[in-house]
From TrEMBL:
Organism: Qipengyuania gaetbuli
InterPro entries with a match to the protein in the record: Globin-like_sf, Globin/Proto, Hemoglobin_trunc
Any one Gene Ontology molecular-function term assigned to this protein's record: oxygen binding
Matches recorded under CDD domains: TrHb1_N
Protein name: Group 1 truncated hemoglobin
Chain positions recorded as heme binding sites: 49, 73
UniProt keyword annotation of Isomerase present: no
Entry keywords, A to Z: Heme, Iron, Metal-binding, Transport
Recorded superkingdom: Bacteria
């Protein structure tokens, strides 16, 4: 019996996830509402963390815990409106990189499941 291919493998693994995450952060940095959250953040480090997280939710080998997510965001005044805007931008980035709608919704859904760990305001 054939094993079902993960989204991570389906879309090309770390190299593609890395491009998606880099594109997302370029858009986030250009956004007037979300960009300031990254003013004092080491860009390479956050891209590395996010690449691991997105890889994980796509069924890849990297893993990420909810405790880590909460710890990384606990000091930031992130509102539901900020989170909603991120979800829209992530959806657009995934679609722009050829991720099928159903798969994009699954990735965005994985982010949405962690809203309570990120939203603090």
């Amino acid at each position: 019996m054939a094993q079902q291919q993960s989204m991570f493998d389906k879309y090309g693994g770390f190299s593609v996830v890395s491009k998606i995450v880099l594109d997302l952060y370029e858009r986030l940095l250009d956004d007037d509402d979300l960009g300031p959250f990254f003013d004092d953040v080491e860009f390479a480090r956050i891209v590395d963390h996010q690449t691991k997280f997105v890889s994980s939710v796509m069924g890849g080998p990297a893993s990420y815990t909810d405790v880590q997510i909460q710890k990384l965001h606990s000091h930031l005044p992130i509102s539901d409106a900020h989170f909603d805007k991120l979800a829209l931008m992530l959806t657009q980035v995934l679609q722009d990189h050829g991720v099928e709608d159903e798969d994009a919704q699954e990735v965005v859904g994985a982010f949405a499941q962690r809203r309570g760990l990120v939203v603090n305001d």
